[in-house]
Amino acid sequence: MRARNELARGGWYVGHLSDGYLAKQEGVHKKIVIDDERKKVIIRIFDLFVSGKSTDEIAQILNNEDVPTTNRYRLHSRFFNYNEIYRKGGIEYERDNVKWQGSLIGQILSNEWYIGVRSYNGEQYAIPRIITDDVWQKAVEMRTLRFAQFRTHRNKRKHNYLLANYLFCGKCGRKMYGGDARGEIRKFL
After folding, report:
1. Could you tell me where the beta strands, DSSP code E, fall in the chain?
2. What's the whole-model pTM score?
3. For the segment 6-26, what is each residue's pLDDT rounded down to a tens digit?
4. Rounded distance, CA 128 to CA 23, Å?
5. How far apart are the C-alpha atoms of 63 and 60, rounded to whole Å?
6. Integer distance in angstroms from the first to the last C-alpha of the chain?
7. Which residues contact residue 151 at a Cβ distance below 8 angstroms, ignoring those fewer than 6 apart?
């Protein structure tokens, strides 16, 4: 564990990589570097968010433009060795069919890797940054404001769906949730 901590402290690859980063072989170990192609996608997500788009709107824009998700990009990239099918919760998924979702955009917007801070085993280490402090701060302020608005709206809901955390789409694995007054069950897209 001590050796892994030392590698992480030096900016070397240990564990996982966030979208926008690569592990470049340098001698025996791999160094964390910015993936210039994916960097553009990450910057665009932040720019769309600070310009007023919601996470769901950003996901829809990226899906409409056929921007590859992390899974699809890594499946077809020469830098990664990804299998076309992966299993989650006993269900098989094709990486090529994974779409952008608002929740994934939210994870990107709150990931400190993009401002050059990597947490590993309870400690923080410096890595190359993708997002400026100004853009990050604007995104934090907007997330905080939207979270407060969402919480207020969420507390006013009339229905608690009993199976809300137990129903998943058999094709894509996304959660199902309660719908409109007719009680339809829909996938979260």
Report:
1. 21-26, 29-34, 85-88, 91-94, 117-120, 123-126, 176-178, 185-187
2. 0.71
3. 887 777 777 788 899 988 888
4. 12
5. 5
6. 40
7. none
